[in-house]
Amino acid sequence: MEKGKVTISQNFTDNRQVVEVCGRHIVLSSILSEVENAISNDNNIEEIRFIAGTIFKVDANLEKGVWHGRNIVVYAKELQICQSVHWNVSGKDGCEKYTQNAGSSKNGIGLNGKDGEAGESGGNVMIIAKVIKCSENLTITANGGNGSKGQDGGNGAPGKDGKGISTSNFDSLFPPAASVNVKSANNVSKLKRKELTKRNLLHNKLLKKKNVYKSSKLKTKKLMKHNKLLK
């Protein structure tokens, strides 16, 4: 196909379907609809190449709806981007939808759900040019697509009936806060009494030792006095 001095052809190159747009001076907006028709009619097209002998003028957006997951190659002596342009080659989102859960096995155990569909990989953009004018005007988006929601797992088997508990057992296992505090206070009181008893025993023991020491000292004095009289 020819568009002025621009040719648009579809080839099988490098083991993939490729659309090639070749010309000395290419204006994207003037050939865009024809290229997009070729892409829409063949889902096997993976790559689009723009080969310009002198100038490639970028003045049109590439929308995700048509260009999703495609690879774009631009080869030109000069690339002109004189207005704000967005090329979106992001991949499509996964679209698998499950209408029911995975169900249950014969023994009643729920089965695992299936994985969701993976999103499409984003495309690639390669630009080779000696001069790029107003490069800040070009925005390229190449995100991978979102995966779809996985299948819900099957429902589990009914559980066993629960067993009840009497009021008295419940009260013994979970006593009110007040009774716990009283019990704690009683325990503290017992500890204090034990500590006082230990202290009293130790005090009495020390007193006994002191009295024995005094008695021994008194006996020693009397003995010394008696010996002195004998002399």
Q: How many beta strands in the DSSP annotation?
A: 8
H-E string:
EEEHEHEEEEHH
Query: Strand arrangement, largest sheet?
Result: 1-2-3-4-5-7
Instruction: Output the number of helix runs.
Output: 4
Radius of gyration: 48 Å
Average pLDDT works out at 81
Poorly predicted segments: none
Q: First CA to last CA: what distance?
A: 154 Å
Name the shape in a single word: elongated
Question: Which percent bin holds the helix content?
Answer: 25-40%
Q: Give the helix/strand class.
A: alpha/beta
Amount of beta strand = 25-35%
Please sum up the structure shown.
This protein has helices at 28-40, 64-67, 167-173, 177-230, and strands spanning 2-3, 6-13, 16-27, 45-57, 71-80, 85-88, 125-133, 138-141. The protein has 231 residues and is α/β, with parallel strands linked by helices. The strands form 2 sheets. A 6-stranded mixed beta sheet has the order 1-2-3-4-5-7, covered by helices on one side. Strands 6-8 form a two-stranded parallel sheet.
